[in-house]
Amino acid sequence: MSVTRIPMTKKGYQQICDDLERLKKIERPKNIQDIAEARAHGDLSENAEYHAAKERQSFIEGRIRELESKIAHAEIIDTSRLSSDKIVFGASVNLYVVDNGEEKCLTLVGQDEIDLKNGKISIHSPVGKALIGRRVGEVVKVTTPVKVIEYEVINIFFKNEG
Q1: Taking the complete model, does pTM exceed 0.85, yes or no?
Q2: SS3 letters for the chain?
Q3: Pair type for strands 103-109 and 92-97
Q4: CA–CA separation, 49 vs 39, rounded Å?
Q5: Burial call 132-145: b when 16+ CB within 10 Å, e when fewer
Q6: What does the radius of gyration of the chain's CA atoms come to, in whole angstroms?
Protein backbone atom coordinates (compact mmCIF):
# COMPACT_ATOMS: atom_id res chain seq x y z
CA MET A 1 0.00 0.00 0.00
CA SER A 2 1.53 3.32 -1.04
CA VAL A 3 1.13 6.41 1.08
CA THR A 4 -0.36 9.41 -0.68
CA ARG A 5 1.87 12.44 -0.24
CA ILE A 6 0.20 15.81 0.32
CA PRO A 7 2.02 18.58 -1.57
CA MET A 8 2.35 21.89 0.26
CA THR A 9 4.55 24.93 0.40
CA LYS A 10 6.88 25.62 3.33
CA LYS A 11 4.46 28.32 4.48
CA GLY A 12 1.47 25.96 4.31
CA TYR A 13 3.38 23.30 6.28
CA GLN A 14 4.31 25.85 8.94
CA GLN A 15 0.68 26.98 9.24
CA ILE A 16 -0.42 23.38 9.89
CA CYS A 17 2.34 22.92 12.49
CA ASP A 18 1.33 26.19 14.20
CA ASP A 19 -2.34 25.17 14.23
CA LEU A 20 -1.46 21.77 15.72
CA GLU A 21 0.69 23.36 18.43
CA ARG A 22 -2.11 25.82 19.31
CA LEU A 23 -4.62 22.97 19.59
CA LYS A 24 -2.32 20.87 21.80
CA LYS A 25 -0.95 23.63 24.05
CA ILE A 26 -3.89 26.05 24.32
CA GLU A 27 -7.23 24.65 23.11
CA ARG A 28 -6.94 21.13 24.58
CA PRO A 29 -5.89 22.24 28.11
CA LYS A 30 -8.56 24.97 28.16
CA ASN A 31 -11.20 22.45 27.12
CA ILE A 32 -10.10 19.98 29.83
CA GLN A 33 -10.50 22.80 32.35
CA ASP A 34 -13.97 23.62 30.95
CA ILE A 35 -15.02 19.96 31.33
CA ALA A 36 -13.79 19.90 34.95
CA GLU A 37 -15.68 23.10 35.77
CA ALA A 38 -18.87 21.86 34.12
CA ARG A 39 -18.57 18.51 35.93
CA ALA A 40 -18.36 20.39 39.24
CA HIS A 41 -21.82 21.85 38.61
CA GLY A 42 -23.46 18.53 39.43
CA ASP A 43 -25.95 16.45 37.44
CA LEU A 44 -24.27 15.69 34.09
CA SER A 45 -27.42 14.47 32.36
CA GLU A 46 -28.86 17.99 32.15
CA ASN A 47 -25.61 19.94 32.12
CA ALA A 48 -25.42 21.80 28.77
CA GLU A 49 -21.95 23.23 29.51
CA TYR A 50 -20.60 19.74 30.14
CA HIS A 51 -22.09 18.31 26.94
CA ALA A 52 -20.83 21.28 24.89
CA ALA A 53 -17.32 20.90 26.35
CA LYS A 54 -17.31 17.14 25.64
CA GLU A 55 -18.43 17.81 22.07
CA ARG A 56 -15.67 20.41 21.71
CA GLN A 57 -13.16 17.89 23.09
CA SER A 58 -14.19 15.41 20.40
CA PHE A 59 -13.75 18.06 17.71
CA ILE A 60 -10.30 19.11 19.04
CA GLU A 61 -9.03 15.52 19.22
CA GLY A 62 -10.28 14.80 15.70
CA ARG A 63 -8.63 17.93 14.35
CA ILE A 64 -5.34 17.05 16.09
CA ARG A 65 -5.37 13.59 14.47
CA GLU A 66 -6.16 15.13 11.07
CA LEU A 67 -3.29 17.66 11.32
CA GLU A 68 -0.83 15.02 12.56
CA SER A 69 -1.73 12.87 9.55
CA LYS A 70 -1.22 15.78 7.15
CA ILE A 71 2.18 16.53 8.69
CA ALA A 72 3.16 12.85 8.45
CA HIS A 73 2.20 12.74 4.76
CA ALA A 74 3.42 16.22 3.82
CA GLU A 75 5.63 16.68 0.80
CA ILE A 76 7.10 20.15 1.12
CA ILE A 77 7.80 21.63 -2.28
CA ASP A 78 10.72 24.06 -2.32
CA THR A 79 9.64 26.49 -5.03
CA SER A 80 13.01 28.28 -4.97
CA ARG A 81 14.49 25.33 -6.88
CA LEU A 82 11.82 25.14 -9.57
CA SER A 83 12.08 26.46 -13.09
CA SER A 84 9.53 28.95 -14.34
CA ASP A 85 9.42 27.56 -17.89
CA LYS A 86 6.15 25.72 -17.22
CA ILE A 87 3.36 25.82 -14.62
CA VAL A 88 3.88 23.48 -11.66
CA PHE A 89 2.76 23.26 -8.03
CA GLY A 90 3.60 26.48 -6.18
CA ALA A 91 3.86 28.60 -9.32
CA SER A 92 2.16 31.97 -9.62
CA VAL A 93 0.72 32.71 -13.03
CA ASN A 94 -0.37 35.92 -14.71
CA LEU A 95 -3.29 35.14 -16.98
CA TYR A 96 -5.11 37.14 -19.65
CA VAL A 97 -8.84 36.35 -19.70
CA VAL A 98 -9.64 36.22 -23.43
CA ASP A 99 -13.41 36.92 -23.02
CA ASN A 100 -13.16 40.21 -21.15
CA GLY A 101 -9.54 41.34 -21.45
CA GLU A 102 -8.93 41.21 -17.69
CA GLU A 103 -5.69 40.01 -16.17
CA LYS A 104 -5.54 37.87 -13.07
CA CYS A 105 -2.80 36.34 -10.99
CA LEU A 106 -3.27 32.86 -9.54
CA THR A 107 -0.99 30.71 -7.39
CA LEU A 108 -1.36 26.91 -7.45
CA VAL A 109 -1.30 25.49 -3.93
CA GLY A 110 -2.35 22.43 -1.94
CA GLN A 111 -5.85 21.84 -0.62
CA ASP A 112 -5.08 23.29 2.84
CA GLU A 113 -3.63 26.52 1.47
CA ILE A 114 -6.54 27.67 -0.71
CA ASP A 115 -7.28 31.39 -0.32
CA LEU A 116 -9.49 32.59 -3.17
CA LYS A 117 -9.40 36.24 -2.04
CA ASN A 118 -5.63 36.19 -2.54
CA GLY A 119 -5.68 34.16 -5.76
CA LYS A 120 -4.49 30.88 -4.22
CA ILE A 121 -6.28 27.99 -5.93
CA SER A 122 -5.96 24.24 -5.55
CA ILE A 123 -3.91 22.26 -8.02
CA HIS A 124 -6.88 19.87 -7.96
CA SER A 125 -9.42 22.51 -9.06
CA PRO A 126 -10.56 22.57 -12.71
CA VAL A 127 -8.48 25.71 -13.39
CA GLY A 128 -5.47 24.31 -11.51
CA LYS A 129 -5.60 21.03 -13.42
CA ALA A 130 -5.90 22.86 -16.74
CA LEU A 131 -2.89 25.09 -16.00
CA ILE A 132 -0.42 22.39 -14.86
CA GLY A 133 2.30 21.85 -17.46
CA ARG A 134 1.38 24.89 -19.57
CA ARG A 135 3.91 27.46 -20.79
CA VAL A 136 3.92 31.20 -21.46
CA GLY A 137 1.92 32.03 -24.59
CA GLU A 138 -0.34 28.98 -24.41
CA VAL A 139 -4.11 29.41 -24.36
CA VAL A 140 -5.89 27.24 -21.81
CA LYS A 141 -9.59 26.39 -22.06
CA VAL A 142 -11.37 25.65 -18.78
CA THR A 143 -14.87 24.22 -18.86
CA THR A 144 -17.07 25.48 -16.02
CA PRO A 145 -20.71 24.59 -15.38
CA VAL A 146 -21.71 27.92 -16.96
CA LYS A 147 -19.28 28.38 -19.86
CA VAL A 148 -15.84 27.72 -21.30
CA ILE A 149 -13.25 30.27 -20.18
CA GLU A 150 -10.07 30.86 -22.16
CA TYR A 151 -6.91 32.07 -20.42
CA GLU A 152 -3.66 33.02 -22.07
CA VAL A 153 -0.58 32.39 -19.92
CA ILE A 154 1.35 35.69 -19.75
CA ASN A 155 3.96 34.98 -17.09
CA ILE A 156 5.04 32.21 -14.70
CA PHE A 157 6.96 33.03 -11.54
CA PHE A 158 7.49 31.96 -7.94
CA LYS A 159 6.72 34.21 -5.00
CA ASN A 160 9.25 34.01 -2.21
CA GLU A 161 7.05 33.02 0.73
CA GLY A 162 9.78 31.35 2.78
Answers
A1: no
A2: CCCCCEEECHHHHHHHHHHHHHHHHHHHHHHHHHHHHHHHCCCHHHCHHHHHHHHHHHHHHHHHHHHHHHHHCEEECCHHHCCCCCCCCCCEEEEEECCCCCEEEEEEECHHHCEHHHCEEECCCHHHHHHCCCCCCCEEEEECCCCEEEEEEEEEECCCCC
A3: antiparallel
A4: 9
A5: eebeeeeebebeee
A6: 22
Q: How many CB atoms lie within 10 A of CB 87?
A: 24
User: What are the backbone angles phi and psi of residue 93, rounded to the nearest 5°?
Assistant: -135, 130
Helix 48-72 to helix 10-22 angle (10° resolution) is 150
* Angstrom distance (rounded) from CA 13 to CA 106: 20
CA dihedral 132, 138, 143, 147 (to 10 degrees): 150
Q: What pLDDT, in 10s, does the model give residues 34-89?
A: 999 888 877 777 788 888 999 999 999 999 999 999 999 998 887 777 777 899 99
